[in-house]
């Protein structure tokens, strides 16, 4: 039982679990923080951006991939926990010789597809005249200015995938439902559980009949739109792998939403525009719902809300059809039938408008002041680049960061100097450390495994001892490119005993409450399921066909004799011998026991506490008679 | 052997009031709770008194499972839970849970308001009944209690229709409900994994039919509708509000669009819009194509199809009307039918199965003079057409499903006896058990039973765990050999002899001069009295008894003459 840790990013994990002859990859997140090393990709060539000192416009889209710790073509299955954690899927399914199956819920696949589509679209619509890759050579990289010089493992940075690769990767996914028990080769059972973080997000249970590993990734206990987290099913785990905790442990999501609304209202009332860099799915649904309740009371009914993304329409539409994956409140709406999210009404009343991009209808509808939701949150590509350029110079405007994945200061760096206001309201609904310790108390796993970042306070707040996982026994930590041996051994396998065989077993009570039965049976194994059936009857030698060749008479050694236990009381043994017609018996005492002599038969029987030795002439009849006498005094196992 | 008992309380060898009682591993599960459209008396509902004569149903049944929202599968539910009395869980999928109460209310209105029946379930009872429902996801394994688990599979047929696997320990039953193995215009095909149930209970409505391709039927349907409209006739299509109706709407909508037709299409009752809305919200339950394109164009937003008003029936000129219910047994479809039946220009298309006793069944079987209430006789002059659009699996589809699930045995229900017999033979012909390829192995060990915990361990470990010492029983036999040579040479000869005879065993010659066969030790010693005789001491443990005694008898026969 081993865990191969391929990602050092705690919220974008990628681990491989080897369990009972199966190789299971848990998530394949794509760490895009390296894009911050690059310049923004503007729609129009901007002389300002390309002339910035200290930054060089290299091959603009490269992402961090994994080290070759393990041959990825041997991975049997990939379990996806949520749509953010599947962004590296095409790299694995298309370029490593992977031939297995990917399991994910339907919302995860559909929204994951949208995120990938958006990413590909953002990158592909600004084709580059030239791309450089020679700089990744270590000797050249050394000479480059910081931070490129200091970037680690640039050789693993990859170009963005294409839509074709995305489609091919997604075609390898098999859809699953919560609490579905999925058999892997009959050896292991995996089950997705609701994790409460996003539409269709799941934790996974990987178990055999006697071992249980829980994989907790990106979970939330807050009541937002997804189905609540299923905690009870995580109980009795041998190992709990814990990843995807909140990235902003000090911020309270509810407070942040309040701050978001009030800052938005303030800016708009003063005639400024609000820019919200965001992903096309997830928190945006909650933000829109808050605004739906907030705009009338804040007097913002006339302010247009724009949602610009190649997948904006799809994202809004898809959110309405996953009723079964939503919290109870939203689910009951569908029974009426009404759309579960209020943004349907915002669209109907023309308060919220969505566009695939800046081109086309948007330019004619565009009114200011307004609120724009658009991507990408890294500010390096997507329509957000244009709005940063457009609104950055005016102090009336505000950019509000809600996504916690990127450092907002670094994201803003290439746009400096900036006049517009910057508000940082990271909304991360994933578990914080207080919730984690409550959860661990509740589910009580034997061992906890987590990224090393969670076993110490964050570097910026090293005094906050409460910002780390505290459990007993201490959590085992992993770091990128490490292999952990998980601390438990497999000892048992489930076997079914057929009723016919069970009938034939004779249990004897050895100690109070403990019975034993000797089992001789035939083990049938099919699809890793084991069944014990009664042994075949010994075949009677057929009388007429006796052959003389010695090798034919070799007995089947596979018929096993039981072990013996107990001891032989000499006096009773001698009595038994006499009863069976042996005479002339002599008993001698030795240091460890007795020797029984049958002088007539030239036979000697050594009896000790836990051994008996019969030495006789080659007289099979005699030997068998003596054997049966001895066995009467012993227990068989 | 595992015992599974199946008792059909309805729809054993007919169609209507589906209700099957399954006892498996000490658990009792009721599958579906339907009503019969052809009866208005006691025979309308299944005979629940069969389940238990005295005592509450709740104590006897562990759960109730509803496969889909058709009334012949869920129509008796409020009667069963509220009037007979059942408080346990009722499982169904989300779309079924959403749509089921609407159809029940519809049915109740027709029965009570139109036919004036007393002692029928009330609206409140429908609501109370639905409170006992637990919604399940596709493929979700629902743990009803510690031992009983159920799992839903996609069945096609209608929105939200599901097949259910019921499992207790290692025994399982799959109940298909109604299903469809070919995707249609709005639903996908049923699918099940190779779950190898002990028993597969499958519907067999179309047990003998192998239906022609869907395209041909669609073309036929459109042609007939088109012809009738062209000659100025009115077309009545009796349907159930949800299901077939949506498929035919999609069909006509696209046809009207393509042919640029002007004749109005109406859909009766207020259900239409609501029904279509359900389809929009539960679009994940429709087929691949609709799901893929719904963002661009939602197939359930119809341009040409408008809501029907009773007054429209007397409008001059051609029109197409979808009206409920589907078997012409009551309600609006029957009203319109009576109005239009006298005109030979008009047409009625029955797109689904009709239960015996309904007007639909009568006209399909060729009856042209119908006795209506109050001794009125209605003469049917209008064209009567039947088109099998109802989404049941045909013989081929049923065989396909049997192949997918690989059950040990198959039980046919929900069909006509004769047709079942035919299908039974076909299944028996086609599927025969294949023997296992893998070689079984003999195993020996000790079963330790402590409380209810059973562990099979090696005998050595059992002894160790219980703190018992092993008692070694050893035999040593003296075999006299006539051999004047030295002991070492004798041993050598014994070795080479055994080596050549016992090819399957490990025979070794040890440095101290002794020979071993597996764990059996053979030593040669000089005879104390006769120098021409050597004594072979053959020693083995009880566990090696067979081989040991075999060896002695082998050695007793003497050694072959040494080759020179």
TrEMBL record, chain A:
Region named Disordered:
527-552
Name the domain of life this protein comes from: Eukaryota
Q: Which GO biological-process labels does this protein carry?
A: negative regulation of transmembrane receptor protein serine/threonine kinase signaling pathway; regulation of cellular response to growth factor stimulus; RNA polymerase II transcription initiation surveillance; snRNA 3'-end processing
- Where does it localize? Cytoplasm; Nucleus
UniProtKB keywords: Cytoplasm, Nucleus
**Database matches in CDD domains:** Int9-like_MBL-fold
- GO CC aspect terms: cytosol; INTAC complex; integrator complex
Chief location of this protein? Answer: cytoplasm
Beta-Casp domain spans which residues?
284-412
Keyword match Cytoplasm: yes
Function of the molecule? Component of the integrator complex, a multiprotein complex that terminates RNA polymerase II (Pol II) transcription in the promoter-proximal region of genes.
Similarity remark:
Belongs to the metallo-beta-lactamase superfamily. RNA-metabolizing metallo-beta-lactamase-like family. INTS9 subfamily.
Q: Subunit info?
A: Component of the Integrator complex, composed of core subunits INTS1, INTS2, INTS3, INTS4, INTS5, INTS6, INTS7, INTS8, INTS9/RC74, INTS10, INTS11/CPSF3L, INTS12, INTS13, INTS14 and INTS15. The core complex associates with protein phosphatase 2A subunits PPP2CA and PPP2R1A, to form the Integrator-PP2A (INTAC) complex. INTS9 is part of the RNA endonuclease subcomplex, composed of INTS4, INTS9, INTS11 and inositol hexakisphosphate (InsP6). Interacts with WDR73; interaction is required for the assembly of the RNA endonuclease subcomplex in the cytoplasm.
The protein depicted here goes by the name: Integrator complex subunit 9
TrEMBL record, chain B:
Which domain of life does this protein belong to? Eukaryota
Q: Which Gene3D superfamilies match?
A: 3.40.50.10890, Ribonuclease Z/Hydroxyacylglutathione hydrolase-like
The residue ranges of the Beta-Casp domain are 245-363
Q: Where is the Metallo-beta-lactamase domain?
A: 16-210
Q: Coiled-coil regions in this chain?
A: none
Compartment list: Cytoplasm; Nucleus
User: Which cofactors are named for this entry?
Assistant: Zn(2+)
Q: Which UniProt keywords apply?
A: Cytoplasm, Hydrolase, Metal-binding, Nucleus, Zinc
Q: Which InterPro entries match?
A: Beta_Casp, INTS11-like_MBL-fold, IntS11_C, MBL, Metallo-B-lactamas, RibonucZ/Hydroxyglut_hydro, RMMBL
Chief location bin: cytoplasm
Q: PANTHER family of this UniProt entry?
A: CLEAVAGE AND POLYADENYLATION SPECIFICITY FACTOR FAMILY MEMBER, INTEGRATOR COMPLEX SUBUNIT 11
Q: Which family does this protein fall into? A: Belongs to the metallo-beta-lactamase superfamily. RNA-metabolizing metallo-beta-lactamase-like family. INTS11 subfamily.
Subunit text: Component of the Integrator complex, composed of core subunits INTS1, INTS2, INTS3, INTS4, INTS5, INTS6, INTS7, INTS8, INTS9/RC74, INTS10, INTS11/CPSF3L, INTS12, INTS13, INTS14 and INTS15. The core complex associates with protein phosphatase 2A subunits PPP2CA and PPP2R1A, to form the Integrator-PP2A (INTAC) complex. INTS11 is part of the RNA endonuclease subcomplex, composed of INTS4, INTS9, INTS11 and inositol hexakisphosphate (InsP6). Interacts with WDR73; interaction is required for the assembly of the RNA endonuclease subcomplex in the cytoplasm.
Protein name, per record:
Integrator complex subunit 11
């Amino acid at each position: 039982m081993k865990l191969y840790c391929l990602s050092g990013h705690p919220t974008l994990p990628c681990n491989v679990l080897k369990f009972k002859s199966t190789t299971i990859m848990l998530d394949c997140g794509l760490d895009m923080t390296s894009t911050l090393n690059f310049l923004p990709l503007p729609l129009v060539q901007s002389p300002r951006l390309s002339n910035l000192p200290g930054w060089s416009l290299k091959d603009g889209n490269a992402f961090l991939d994994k080290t070759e710790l393990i041959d990825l073509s041997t991975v049997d299955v990939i379990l996806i926990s949520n749509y953010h954690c599947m962004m590296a899927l095409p790299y694995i399914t298309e370029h490593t010789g992977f031939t297995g199956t990917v399991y994910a819920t339907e919302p995860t696949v559909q929204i994951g597809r949208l995120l990938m589509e958006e990413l590909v679209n953002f990158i592909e619509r600004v084709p580059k005249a030239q791309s450089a890759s020679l700089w990744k050579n270590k000797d050249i990289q050394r000479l480059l200015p910081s931070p490129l010089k200091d970037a680690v493992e640039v050789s693993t940075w990859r170009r963005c995938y294409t839509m074709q690769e995305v489609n091919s990767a997604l075609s390898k996914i098999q859809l699953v439902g919560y609490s579905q028990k999925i058999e892997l080769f009959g050896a292991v059972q995996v089950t997705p559980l609701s994790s409460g973080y996003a539409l269709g997000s799941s934790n996974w249970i990987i178990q055999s009949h006697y071992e249980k590993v829980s994989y907790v990734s990106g979970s939330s206990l807050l009541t937002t739109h997804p189905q609540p987290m299923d905690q009870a099913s995580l109980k009795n785990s041998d190992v709990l792998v814990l990843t995807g905790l909140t990235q902003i442990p000090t911020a309270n999501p509810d407070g942040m939403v309040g701050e978001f609304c009030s800052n938005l209202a303030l800016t708009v009332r003063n005639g400024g525009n609000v820019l919200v860099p965001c992903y096309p799915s997830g928190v945006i649904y909650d933000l829109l719902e808050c605004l739906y309740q907030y705009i009338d009371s804040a007097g913002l009914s006339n302010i247009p809300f724009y949602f610009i993304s190649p997948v904006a329409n799809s994202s809004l539409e898809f959110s309405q059809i996953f009723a079964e994956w939503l919290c109870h409140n939203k689910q009951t709406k569908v029974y009426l039938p009404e759309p579960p999210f209020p943004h349907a009404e915002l669209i109907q009343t023309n308060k919220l408008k969505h566009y695939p991009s800046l081109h086309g209808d948007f330019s004619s509808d565009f009114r200011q002041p307004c609120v724009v939701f658009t991507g990408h949150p890294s500010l390096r590509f997507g329509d957000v680049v244009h709005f940063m350029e457009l609104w950055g110079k005016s102090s009336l405007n505000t950019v509000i960061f809600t996504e916690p994945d990127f450092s907002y200061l670094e994201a803003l760096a290439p746009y400096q100097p900036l006049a517009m206001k910057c508000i940082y309201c990271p909304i991360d609904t994933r578990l914080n450390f207080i919730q984690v310790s409550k959860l661990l108390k509740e589910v009580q796993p034997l061992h906890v495994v987590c990224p090393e970042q969670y076993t110490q306070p964050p570097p910026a707040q090293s005094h906050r001892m409460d910002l780390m996982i505290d459990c007993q026994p201490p959590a085992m930590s992993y770091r990128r490119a490490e292999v952990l041996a998980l601390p438990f051994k497999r000892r048992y396998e489930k076997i079914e005993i057929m009723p016919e065989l069970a009938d034939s077993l004779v249990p004897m009570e050895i100690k109070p409450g403990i019975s034993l039965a000797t089992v001789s049976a035939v083990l049938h194994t099919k699809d890793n399921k084991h069944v014990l059936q009664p042994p075949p009857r010994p075949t009677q030698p057929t009388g007429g066909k006796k052959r003389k060749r010695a090798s034919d008479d070799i007995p089947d050694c596979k018929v096993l004799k039981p072990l013996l236990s107990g001891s032989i009381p000499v006096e009773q043994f001698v009595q038994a011998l006499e009863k069976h017609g042996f005479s002339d018996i002599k008993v001698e005492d030795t240091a460890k026991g007795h020797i029984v002599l049958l002088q007539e038969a030239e036979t000697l029987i050594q009896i000790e506490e836990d051994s008996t030795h019969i030495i006789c002439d080659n007289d099979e009849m005699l030997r068998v008679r003596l054997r049966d006498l001895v066995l009467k005094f012993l227990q068989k196992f | 052997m595992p015992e599974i008992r199946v008792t059909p309380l309805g729809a054993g060898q007919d169609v209507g009031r589906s209700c099957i009682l399954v006892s498996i591993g000490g658990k009792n599960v009721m599958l579906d709770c339907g009503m019969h459209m052809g009866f208005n008396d006691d025979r309308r509902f299944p005979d629940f008194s069969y389940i238990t004569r005295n005592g509450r149903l709740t104590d006897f049944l562990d759960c109730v499972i509803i496969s889909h929202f058709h009334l012949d599968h869920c129509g008796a539910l409020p009667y069963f839970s509220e009037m007979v009395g059942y408080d346990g869980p009722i499982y169904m999928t989300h779309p079924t849970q959403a749509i089921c109460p609407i159809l029940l209310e519809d049915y109740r209105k027709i029965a009570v308001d139109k036919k004036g029946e007393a002692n029928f379930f009330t609206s409140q009872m429908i609501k109370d009944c639905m409170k006992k429902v637990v919604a399940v996801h596709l493929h979700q394994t629902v743990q009803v209690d510690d031992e009983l688990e159920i799992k839903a599979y996609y069945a096609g047929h209608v929105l939200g229709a599901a097949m259910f696997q019921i499992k207790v320990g290692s025994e399982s039953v799959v109940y298909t409900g109604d299903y469809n193995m070919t995707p249609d215009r709005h639903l996908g095909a049923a699918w099940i994994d190779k779950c190898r149930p002990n028993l597969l209970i499958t519907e067999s409505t179309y047990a003998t039919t192998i239906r022609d391709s869907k395209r041909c039927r669609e073309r036929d349907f459109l042609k007939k509708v088109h012809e009738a409209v062209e000659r100025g006739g009115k077309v009545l299509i009796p349907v159930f509000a949800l299901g077939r109706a949506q498929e035919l709407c999609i069909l006509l909508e696209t046809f009207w669009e393509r042919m640029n037709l002007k004749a109005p299409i109406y859909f009766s009752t207020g259900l239409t819009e609501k029904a279509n809305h359900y389809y929009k919200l539960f679009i994940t339950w429709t087929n691949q194509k609709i799901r893929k394109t719904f963002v661009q164009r939602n197939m359930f937003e119809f341009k040409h199809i408008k809501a029907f008003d009773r007054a429209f029936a007397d409008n001059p000129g051609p029109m197409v009307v979808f009206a409920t219910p589907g078997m012409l047994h009551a309600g609006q479809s029957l009203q319109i039918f009576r109005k239009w039946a006298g005109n030979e220009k008009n047409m009625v298309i029955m797109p689904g199965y009709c239960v015996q006793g309904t007007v639909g069944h009568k006209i399909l079987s060729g009856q042209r003079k119908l006795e209506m209430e109050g001794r009125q006789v209605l003469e049917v002059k209008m064209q009567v057409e039947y088109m099998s659009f109802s989404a049941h699996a045909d013989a081929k589809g049923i065989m396909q499903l049997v192949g997918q699930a690989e059950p040990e045995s198959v039980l046919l229900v929900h069909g006509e006896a004769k047709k079942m017999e035919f299908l039974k033979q076909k299944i028996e012909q086609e599927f025969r058990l294949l023997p296992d390829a893998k070689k079984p192995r003999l195993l020996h060990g000790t079963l330790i039973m402590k409380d209810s915990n059973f562990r099979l361990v090696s005998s050595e470990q059992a002894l160790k765990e219980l703190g018992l010492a092993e008692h070694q029983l050893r035999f040593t036999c003296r075999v006299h050999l006539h051999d004047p040579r030295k002991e070492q040479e004798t041993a050598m000869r014994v070795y080479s002899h055994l080596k050549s005879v016992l090819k399957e065993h490990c025979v070794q010659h040890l440095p101290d001069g002794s020979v071993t066969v597996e764990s059996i030790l053979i030593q040669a010693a000089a005879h104390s009295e006769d120098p021409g005789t050597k004594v072979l001491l053959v020693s083995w443990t009880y566990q090696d008894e067979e081989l040991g005694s075999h060896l002695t008898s082998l050695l007793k026969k003497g050694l072959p003459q040494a080759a020179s």
